[in-house]
Design a protein that fits this description.
The structure holds two protein chains of two kinds. By secondary structure, chain A is an alpha/beta fold. Chain A has seven helices and nine strands. The chains are: A alpha/beta, B mainly alpha. At the A-B interface, helix 2 of A face helix 6 and helix 7 of B.
């Protein structure tokens, strides 16, 4: 990214989980990483590599055992960070509009109906403001979760394998929509995934992580056109990048490529 | 067709049972002070209806007051206990003690301590009824999805916001389940308390009429009182069930028509 100060800087983050009875689990081991303004960074790694933990640390939901997270432009306040979980995590008793309105209520911001409608339009849920979560498909629930994360106009959007449970067609569509939203909103995105193809398709930069304890094995800049559409998935340059990322992943798994 | 059969089947079974009952009591000429037939019971119900309904009204008033107290007290207690583990640990054992102590054993004390009979009866019924609401509501207050709780933390939600927007709605289905159980228990509690109090005089509930009929060997009247009591219990259950469906119909699986 630019020579200016990054949005956030992870400095030698190590994180232990108490396993009970004095046993501890080393989830992250010396992770250092910089995330620039407007970056789209993917954390790519196998299950259990601590990439979700890293996201929770950045969100402030947990405090690292050692190391620090620096925010050169000031620590984020509630609403500066949007988070999308692996599951849609919607309130089943509230309509889509009320779910999306929640972050505004919690941070005591004004919730104009037009703003809610605008963010629903953005994620492609124009006509579903009054629907209840149970009436939506898996992909639409995820869109609602995305709208909720975006409604406060966050500087940083954290996504924890949000599309992993969706079918491929829905996932591809949501990938493209996410890129469109990222371009329109000009926010910074950190995207956790275990899919090489998803990481390559979406990201400007990919940090490949090792199995537990999680370390950053490599950082790869993804040199693909800014405007990415589904045709890219059959592109030779894209395939080469996927192969390179796969190799990096495999080297961390202790296998020879 | 299927739906109609579903509704008719229990009704038909009930009618067959009643007919058998009537037929057998007649065939074996069972004395009415042992087992009256359903026709005689219906007739007694018709004749003594006015006085029995008056007694039912008194019992229902106790029941309603006890259920109200159980709901308010139970929810309040659950909310207080859900605030911290320490408070829960300190209070919960006493809630359990109140629940497991047979109300018939403490009722005489309460009747001595409380200076008015209605109050004593309400307290007894309340002791019987409040626990399911406390237990269910507490479970519900802690039932909100972990990720949702994290989301509330992410946006810096306060204790009150979390209770109001997350924990209370998540607890609603649980509370309503507790309420349905407590509704029936309030009636049971009211009847048991009346039995123990055994007060005569003008203001006597249905339980006392049952005792009285027993003493006088007015068994058909006893059965008529029982029928009223059962009907009241069913009505309470149906009303609370309806309330539950009404409140949950938009979102909860238990209230959805297309479940299964």
């Amino acid at each position: 990214m630019s020579a200016a100060s990054p949005l956030l800087r992870l400095q030698d983050i190590t994180h232990l989980y108490g396993g009970g009875k004095g046993r501890t689990l080393l989830a992250l081991d010396g992770v250092s990483l910089e995330v620039g303004h407007g970056d789209f960074l993917s954390l790519l790694g196998p299950s259990g590599c601590g990439k979700s933990t890293l996201l929770r640390l950045i969100a402030g939901l947990e405090t690292p055992s050692s190391g620090a997270i620096a925010w050169p432009d000031g620590k984020p306040v509630p609403g500066d960070i949007g988070f999308v979980f692996q599951e849609p995590t919607l309130m089943p008793w509230a309509s889509v509009a009320d779910n999306v309105r929640l972050p505004l209520r919690l941070t005591r911001r004004r919730a104009m109906p037009a703003d809610i409608q605008a963010v629903l339009d953005l994620v492609g849920l124009r006509d579903f403001a009054g629907a209840y979560p149970r009436e939506l498909s898996g992909g639409m629930k995820m869109r609602a979760a995305l709208a909720r994360a975006l409604v406060t106009r966050p500087r940083l959007l954290l996504l924890d394998e949000p599309f992993a449970a969706l079918d491929e067609i829905t996932r591809f569509k949501l990938n493209e929509d996410l890129l469109r939203i990222w371009r329109e909103r000009r926010c910074t995105v950190i995207f956790v995934t275990h899919s090489v193809f998803e990481a390559a398709f979406l990201s400007q930069r990919v940090a490949v992580m090792s199995p537990r304890p999680g370390r950053i094995l490599a950082e790869e800049a993804i040199d693909l056109p800014a405007l990415r559409v589904s045709e890219l998935r059959t592109n030779a340059a894209y395939s080469a990048i996927c192969r390179k990322l796969s190799d990096r992943l495999a080297s961390g798994m202790g296998e020879t490529p | 067709m299927r739906a109609l059969l579903d509704r008719l089947a229990p009704l038909a079974l009930g009618l067959i049972g009643l007919a058998l009952w009537e037929g057998l009591t007649r065939h074996y000429a069972v004395p009415v002070y042992v087992l009256p037939g359903p026709l005689l019971i219906a007739q007694t119900l018709w004749q003594d209806g006015a006085s029995l309904l008056g007694a039912l009204w008194i019992t229902l008033r106790i029941t309603a007051l006890a259920l109200l107290a159980a709901t308010l007290g139970g929810v309040l207690l659950a909310v207080v206990m859900a605030q911290s583990r320490l408070v829960e640990r300190s209070l919960f054992p006493y809630a359990v003690i109140a629940q497991v102590t047979p109300v018939v054993a403490i009722a005489p004390l309460i009747i001595i301590w409380a200076d008015n009979t209605t109050l004593a009866l309400v307290i007894c019924a309340w002791i019987v009824a409040f626990f399911p609401i406390v237990a269910a509501t507490m479970t519900g207050l802690n039932a909100a999805e972990k990720n949702l709780r994290d989301l509330f933390r992410l946006y810096g939600a306060g204790r009150w916001q979390t209770l109001q927007l997350l924990r209370a709605p998540a607890a609603l289905p649980y509370f309503l389940t507790g309420l349905r159980v407590s509704g029936g228990l309030s009636l049971v509690g009211a009847v048991v308390a009346e039995f123990v109090a055994g007060t005569g005089g003008a203001e006597t509930g249905l339980a006392f009429r049952i005792l009285e009929s027993g003493y006088r060997l007015q068994i058909p009247r006893l059965f008529a009182a029982l029928v009223l009591l059962a009907a009241a219990g069913i009505a309470i259950y149906v009303a609370l069930d309806l309330l539950s469906r009404l409140l949950l119909r938009r979102w909860h699986d238990s209230a959805l028509k297309d479940r299964g």
